From TrEMBL:
Gene source species: Nocardioides simplex (Arthrobacter simplex)
Protein name listed in UniProt: Uncharacterized protein
């Protein structure tokens, strides 16, 4: 029983230590999110730009 727990612990530590390249570049994800948020901001300004303030 104790041996199984030790093996599970060793496997968990090895899995946590493995490093690899991310599947998608984080800069690409950040750029896409930034472009989307800027698009939403421009849409908000366009929608509310011609209205009078109350």
């Amino acid at each position: 029983m104790l041996s199984q727990i030790n093996q599970a612990a060793v496997l968990a530590v090895r899995a946590a230590e493995e490093h690899g390249e991310p599947a998608v570049n984080p800069w690409l994800i950040g750029g896409v999110v930034l472009a989307f948020l800027l698009f939403l901001l421009l849409g908000l300004v366009w929608f509310g730009g011609g209205r009078d303030h109350s």
